[in-house]
Amino acid sequence: MSKQYETVIGLEVHVELATKTKIFCSCSTAFGGAPNTHTCPVCTGMPGSLPVLNKQVVEYAVAVGLATNCTITQYCKFDRKNYFYPDNPQNYQISQLYLPICRNGSVEIETAGGKKSIGIHEIHMEEDAGKLVHDEWEDCSIVDYNRSGVPLIEIVSEPDMRSAEEVIAYLEKLRLIIQYLGASDCKLNEGSMRADVNLSVREVGATEFGTRTEMKNLNSFKAIARAIEGERARQIELLEEGKQVIQETRRWDDNKEYSYAMRSKEDAQDYRYFPEPDLVPIVISDEWLAEIKAKEPELRTAKLERYKKEYELPDYDAQIITGSKHMADIFEETTAICKKPKKVSNWLMGETLRLLKEHEKEPEDIAFSAENLAKLIELVDGGVINGNVAKEVFEQIFDRNIDPEKYVEEKGLKTVNDEGALRETIEQIVADNPKSVEDYHNGKEKAIGFLVGQTMKAMKGKADPGMVNKILKEIL
């Protein structure tokens, strides 16, 4: 009988905070930018330069801690983590080991298996390192310090997850909380949210944990799921062959769907941590804590309930719309303008999701304005354009955020409401299609559909279908 194995997973999630400037200096944190242009003596580690803490970093870290049910360490301080690596200009990283800002939190996830609470061991603040770029041509590595000193929080979970499904649910939950707080955009593709996966396997029923490996280089949820499946299979295979799993850091190659060893992680990897002498401890007063709490925006769970009550949206619509902070913002702004929540929801749930899928984009990438969507809804409601034309106009709004009123005017897309002109066209079509007229008179209701279609074709789709139906029935 083959053994049954259980996977045990814990995550270290790094999130780049959405501050305008770095954690210890006033350089820009903007993504992109020519190499080494967002730098100064502090974030390039020049001797004699001194760090000054960015207050906003503390506020974001506390806000995330409160939203994830953590205890806030009201007296906390920074430590130096010493290691030598070219992307680390000071030869140490300012982080928090002894007194992290948040501890003992949890978030609730929901998977096919039901609800489950995932523990958060701690959240600490730290600075990011620079980025090494290997130049194949010159066969050398060059370093870009733009990212050096960008503020991060590291969210360390307890080893409470047992499958890729739970891991993705946990990451989705964290991402939504952080996006709603405005603490980060959490774009995995830009590296503003990165997850390292600690994974071990053990026989079902065992109480001891197996030997774990840590996987890095995971920049999409799909890659994370594949890496978990791949590493689980690799460890089980080793155990089945009677070999041992080595504790090490592995790098996942998503193209080859394989992980390979980067470095072995000795338990006693000594970073020689000591309190950071250049920064004073942080004291978070009760007043300051209350102030941060009072500023907390409406989070998803509350928004979901409000959408169902206030806007009378079906649960499904509300789930999808609140599943993206950006989409929820567009929904609320558009509804505020046109006061038609269900219609706004229909456009977001229907055409918007369809086009996002077609262009392989995320809801966060929606680029059109609430004003233009509201104008389109008013055009349809006022009978100025019909449903088919509206879809065509919406594609332009989605692509280029055009003003629908101007576009409809310029392209001559308005519905023809001139009954005289319409009647003339319909009479001509009735005269041209005696067979369909005869079918209709012989009780074939469907024949009228053909005549409506011919009329819409003749009117280039710009007639009001209701009016066409009415006139056709009169003539017939």
Automatic annotation (TrEMBL):
Q: Which residues form the Asn/Gln amidotransferase domain?
A: 329-476
The cross-references to InterPro entries, in alphabetical order and at most eight, read:
Asn/Gln-tRNA_amidoTrfase_suB/E, Asn/Gln-tRNA_Trfase_suB/E_cat, Asn/Gln_amidotransferase, Asn/Gln_tRNA_amidoTrase-B-like, GatB, GatB_C_1, GatB_Yqey_C_2, Gln-tRNA_amidoTrfase_suB_CS
- Give the keywords, sorted: ATP-binding, Ligase, Nucleotide-binding, Protein biosynthesis
Query: Top EC class per UniProt?
Result: ligase
Enzyme Commission numbers on file: 6.3.5.-
Q: Name one Pfam family in it.
A: GatB_N
This enzyme catalyses: L-aspartyl-tRNA(Asn) + L-glutamine + ATP + H2O = L-asparaginyl-tRNA(Asn) + L-glutamate + ADP + phosphate + 2 H(+); L-glutamyl-tRNA(Gln) + L-glutamine + ATP + H2O = L-glutaminyl-tRNA(Gln) + L-glutamate + ADP + phosphate + H(+)
SMART domains given in the database record: GatB_Yqey
Assembly behavior: Heterotrimer of A, B and C subunits.
Record family assignment = Belongs to the GatB/GatE family. GatB subfamily.
Function recorded in the entry: Allows the formation of correctly charged Asn-tRNA(Asn) or Gln-tRNA(Gln) through the transamidation of misacylated Asp-tRNA(Asn) or Glu-tRNA(Gln) in organisms which lack either or both of asparaginyl-tRNA or glutaminyl-tRNA synthetases. The reaction takes place in the presence of glutamine and ATP through an activated phospho-Asp-tRNA(Asn) or phospho-Glu-tRNA(Gln).
Q: What name goes with this protein?
A: Aspartyl/glutamyl-tRNA(Asn/Gln) amidotransferase subunit B
Source organism of this protein record: Maccoyibacter intestinihominis
